[in-house]
Design brief:
65% helix, globular, mainly alpha, homodimer, 172 residues, 3-stranded antiparallel sheet, DNA-binding
Chain lengths: 172, 172
DNA sequence: TATTGTTATACTCTATAACTATA
DNA sequence: TATAGTTATAGAGTATAACAATA
């Protein structure tokens, strides 16, 4: 028989990362494990669907989705920061996408070190389709949550992001 | 100069995955991108510290942390479900940890196909140290969030986890 | 027939670090 | 000196799928 895929694993069972936390553990840890579980749950499913439906991967989709909202293109260092991965990775993903005709490196006049990564027409068409589908997926996943719940969660996570980032840069 | 590591990237700048969302995007998508950003922020830092301080990786730590709360060991299929990865991966990680003397496969009488993965004494000592340190990190990251905020967030994410899981198993 | 776990394969993504070329 | 991007290297993690042993 075929082994279970992560997407299948996410579905039909209750235990997850969180299960390792015991009641005596502190709130912060349990909170973190719950965040991680939610993320893995959704992310596994998204990765699986991107592969099945569009023969692509999450980082590739992320890069193109970033570009979708930057009509004038982005520098690779910008992409690196936005996607929270190192420079060399962006080079690799860009190389692939360029080979597939999805993006192109456009030289700029004022700084000859850098170039702008832009979607081609083909890339733009393609990522628009994927992004629309992606958003539908997310809406389905979270659809049973009331708008108020989603808004509250959004704001609470904004606070979390802020304090976490503060902590991380404090000790840098 | 040395390229920035993900941990460094996470720190000193504002833009992130979320930045790709524009105001017209729907709430669910923006919520998802924010969750993802929070997770990446913390996860990158944890991965980096596990590597630096303990020469290990997140999946390896996760597996050992799971075992810490299962004194009688766990079957590999259990670990697979808990960690939300496929069977073969658990075999690989277990092989590594067994080679390092951190865990052992213990045969059980009633089902000769499976064995229980247990922490060795060495592994138990080691993971206890790591888990304590890991919890301290998390507490620091989230430390500036009030207890009420953390509790609210915890419950809200519980709801999210529930509805997401329902959605995912509904369409299975 | 179904399950547990292993193996083999191939691939993506990743960090690190040294490097080139600009600025 | 600092920045933008590339390259080389090496490794981890992953899915897929076929497989053996057992249930």
């Amino acid at each position: 028989m075929i082994a279970m895929s992560p997407a299948m694993i996410s579905k039909n069972i209750t235990p997850d990362l969180e299960t390792r936390a015991v009641p005596e553990d502190h709130l912060s840890l349990r909170l973190w494990l719950r965040i991680l579980t939610c993320t893995n749950l959704v992310e596994n499913e998204i990765r699986s669907r991107l592969r099945t439906d569009f023969s692509t991967t999450l980082p590739r989709f992320d890069l193109m989705a970033q570009l979708l909202h930057s009509p004038n293109g982005m520098k690779m260092s910008d992409l690196s920061r936005h996607m929270m991965v190192t420079n060399g990775n962006i080079t690799g993903i860009t190389d692939q996408l360029e080979k597939e005709g999805m993006v192109e490196r456009v030289k700029v006049a004022n700084d000859r070190r850098s170039s702008l990564i832009c979607l081609t027409m083909k890339g733009k068409r393609h990522v628009k389709k994927m992004a629309a589908q992606h958003e539908t997926w997310i809406q389905t996943f979270f659809g049973d949550l009331s708008e108020k719940s989603r808004k509250d969660l959004f704001h609470a996570l904004g606070e979390l992001k802020l304090v976490t980032r503060t902590q991380l840069s404090d000790k840098a």
